[in-house]
Design brief:
Layout (H helix, E strand, L loop, with lengths): L3 E9 L3 E9 L4 E2 L4 E8 L8 E3 L7 E8 L6 E8 L10 H4 E3 L3 E3 L1 E4 L7 E8 L4 E3 L3 E8 L6 E10 L4 E5 L13 E3 L1 E5 L8 H4 E7 L7 E4 L3 E2 L3 E4 L6 E3 L5 E4 L10 E6 L4 E5 L20 E3 L14 E9 L7 E6 L14 E3 L4 E9 L1 E11 L5 E2 L13 E10 L4 E11 L2
Parallel strand pairs: 5-14, 25-27
Antiparallel strand pairs: 1-2, 3-14, 4-6, 6-11, 7-9, 7-13, 8-12, 10-11, 13-14, 15-17, 16-22, 17-21, 18-19, 18-33, 20-21, 23-31, 24-25, 26-31, 27-30, 28-31, 29-30, 31-32, 33-34
Length: about 425
């Protein structure tokens, strides 16, 4: 991901205003290993995207995260406005936000009756003392004593619904070689009041498959501009690998061996869980079943316990059977369990003795989806064909974001958003 310089003014307790240059990506990134299980969602549903309407946004976003072995330190947050392609905009803060330039996160609680101790932080925002004023992309920044002490960043959006975005997934794509393996989207945007001579230049469409950003189609321009709508058709970027249904496991109850769990054991330090042996599904027939499209849902299977402070952490061990290691690719575990990133925490290592790949991750109790994918060592391309297989029948969801550049005010408005199911 490209790095961009952010000029951020932060208001700290007793310190007044200060300015400093920071060079960091505008993505969903953790900067400290003790930061775990960052959840950012809308309307009290962990599975909802962090996107809210401009006119009715107050308190509708929930941020929850844990600090392992934390001491309950006071943390701070701020946010900046970004362009459609996630670069900081040049407009002044007073143009996109009202109130303070930063605020404290002072709602926290220590874990209870858990083997791994942590502090859980909660924040409901936007709040009256810091409110986004315009639509578009935003980067939430959580930090400690000052902006040099970054904890993590997360993306969220504010939409001002002025256009209707819809899409269809035809049975046959433009390239018939992809008929059984890929899914193509044909997108239509109705925006009567916005059609102008600059529509082609000012329009930008982003398409995400499930929760992924690595294969997102960004900056798409209309194929055709009609008097009352735009069409995005025959774009190579709107053709996605169909992939497969996500694998799943449930750790909400350490005393019940649910589906896809091979072993559960308790040590002096934590619970440890072995996921049932996995292998490639590339040559297997497609089988449909319900999944949550790669997401995670943190909870404990006990109504008397609090999901955020009484859910314990456990070490989850994955094993992917393979007679030989890959020659040109690395193997990763993909999904919300790792915030859809590809780093050392979810990279699998080949074990010649076991004839397969292994990886261990520390995860909070809950329900998880995941998928094995390959990442090309030279190009960084993420692919599902070798590990999961590709099927047109796969039940994916596609998230469509339509941006229109406001030439007068100098920023990308987010004026349309929708979720489309592939089937």
């Amino acid at each position: 991901m490209k790095k961009h310089t952010l000029l951020i003014w932060a208001l700290l307790m007793g310190a007044g205003l200060f300015a400093q240059d920071f060079d960091l990506p505008c993505g969903n990134l953790n900067y400290k290993p003790e930061v775990q299980t960052v959840l950012l969602y809308a309307d009290d549903n962990q599975l909802n995207d962090p996107i809210v309407p401009l006119e009715e946004m107050m308190g509708r976003l929930t941020l929850s995260f844990d600090i392992i072995d934390g001491q309950g330190d006071m943390l701070n947050y701020t946010f900046i406005h970004c362009s459609h392609d996630w670069q900081p905009t040049d407009i002044q803060r007073i143009q996109y936000a009202s109130g303070f330039e930063s605020d404290r996160i002072d709602d926290y609680a220590f874990s209870r009756n858990t083997l791994i101790e942590y502090v859980n932080y909660q924040l409901k925002f936007p709040k009256d003392d810091m409110v986004p004023l315009i639509s578009g992309n935003y980067l939430l920044i959580v930090y400690g004593d000052d902006m040099n002490d970054l904890y993590f960043t997360r993306r969220f959006m504010v939409v001002d619904e002025k256009a209707h975005v819809g899409a269809t997934v035809p049975r046959y794509p433009d390239d018939l070689a992809f008929t059984d393996t890929h899914q193509q989207l044909n997108v239509k945007v109705n925006m009567n009041s916005y059609i102008s001579n600059n529509t082609q230049q000012f329009s930008n469409l982003t398409i995400r498959q499930n929760g992924r950003w690595d294969n997102a189609a960004e900056g798409l321009k209309p194929t055709y501009v009609y008097p009352d709508y735009l069409s995005f058709e025959h774009h190579p970027q709107t053709v996605f690998e169909g992939a497969n249904q996500y694998r799943r496991f449930n750790t909400s109850n350490f005393y019940f061996q649910s589906e896809n769990l091979a072993h559960i054991r308790q040590t002096d330090e934590s619970f440890e869980i072995d996921i049932a042996t996995c292998e490639s599904r590339a040559r297997k027939a497609y089988a449909t079943y319900e999944d949550i499209h790669g997401e995670k849902f943190v909870y404990v299977e006990n109504d008397n316990l609090d999901n955020f402070t009484e859910a314990d952490y456990c070490r989850v061990n994955f094993f992917y059977k393979s007679e030989a290691p890959l020659t040109h690719e690395d193997l990763y575990i993909m999904g919300a369990l790792n915030d859809w990133r590809f780093d050392e925490s979810n990279k699998m290592r080949y074990d010649y003795r076991l004839h397969g790949y292994t990886c261990s991750m520390v995860l909070k109790q809950g329900y998880y989806n995941f998928m094995f994918v390959t990442v090309d060592r030279k190009t960084g391309e993420v692919r599902t064909d070798l590990t999961a297989g590709n099927h047109w029948e796969t039940n994916n969801i596609y998230k469509l974001y339509f941006y229109y550049y406001n030439a007068i005010k100098g920023y990308d408005e987010l004026i349309g958003y929708s979720i489309v199911k592939s089937h």
